[in-house]
Design goal:
Length: 279
């Protein structure tokens, strides 16, 4: 009995896609063949790796233990093959990525890319996306992933969501005559939208918490000290929406390229990001 690398690839593909069907599409196999590989892997391990629910899957405790091992093994094999075959990508790529809930997915993409292309120097800037557009224009960044109110004609839309006012389920701050709010501490369109939406409905407010990141604003809202404008896809178990402060506004997570960003490295990273968010 031993762990098969093909089975580990299938395991990772299903996990990344969130379903057996999606995993099968990622590895180019039929759903039945993919399910068979999972069963064979589970027979080797001796216990289930996935919990099935609805149309999706999640990891069991055994699956969570196997995940980092499977990821490291597959990345190591891919990197070794690339090195042995020669002719791998070489150069430098500068990427801007947001400091929010998309960060973990992007970090996994970058980690996998680095393992597959060890001779590519990656320079990653994790920050509020407000400065990414100018950094792309000036050539300080080659690629950037961040939220915009309206995508441009050359933008690749990775995810569409909408912004709504939210507060903690444990503490309803909306009952206060003066609404305590959490916002970004610098000029950005999320901050501008938050303040303008309150003015439109004539709601009195007081800024009680500021942060340079969406993570900080979210933490303040979850703790119950303030309301905040957040993505509607936030965790509904701990947050609730405040519909009396207006309808949600659309927001788009996009991939943008600098005008001079061309070549196989840029193309390979762009494709990796698109595929990951399409799953």
């Amino acid at each position: 009995m031993h762990l098969n690398s093909d089975h580990l690839r299938t395991f990772l593909a299903i996990l990344e896609a969130g379903s057996v069907t999606g995993g099968a599409e990622r590895i180019g196999r039929s759903q039945s063949a993919t399910s068979l590989q999972v069963r064979q892997l589970e027979e080797v391990v001796g216990q289930p790796l996935f919990r099935r629910h609805g149309r999706g899957v999640s990891l069991t405790i055994a699956g969570e233990k196997l995940h980092p091992v499977a990821r490291d093994v597959v990345q190591s094999l891919d990197a070794t093959l690339s090195e042995l075959r020669g002719g791998g990508l070489k150069g430098k790529l500068r990427i801007g990525m947001p400091d929010d809930h998309s960060r973990s997915k992007l970090a996994n993409i970058i980690s996998s890319f680095a393992a597959l292309h060890p001779d590519v120097e990656l320079e990653v800037h994790c920050a509020l996306g407000a400065g990414f557009a100018s950094a792309l224009t000036s050539g300080a960044l080659d690629l950037a992933v961040y939220e915009v109110a309206e995508p441009g004609k050359d933008d690749t839309i990775l995810k569409e969501d909408h912004l709504v006012w939210m507060c903690s389920r444990d503490r309803d701050v909306s009952a206060s005559e003066v609404l305590p709010i959490a916002v970004f501490d610098r000029d950005c369109w999320w901050r501008d939208l938050a303040l303008s939406s309150l003015k439109e409905v004539g709601r009195q407010y007081q800024i009680v918490f500021t942060s340079e990141s969406a993570t900080g604003v979210r933490a303040a809202v979850q703790s119950g000290i303030a309301a905040g404008l957040l993505s509607a896809s936030e965790d509904a178990e701990v947050l609730r929406t405040l519909p009396d402060i207006g309808a949600g506004s659309p927001t788009y997570l996009v991939l943008q390229k600098a005008s001079g960003a061309k070549g196989p490295i840029c193309d390979a990273m762009s494709e990796a990001i698109r595929e990951a968010f399409a799953a």
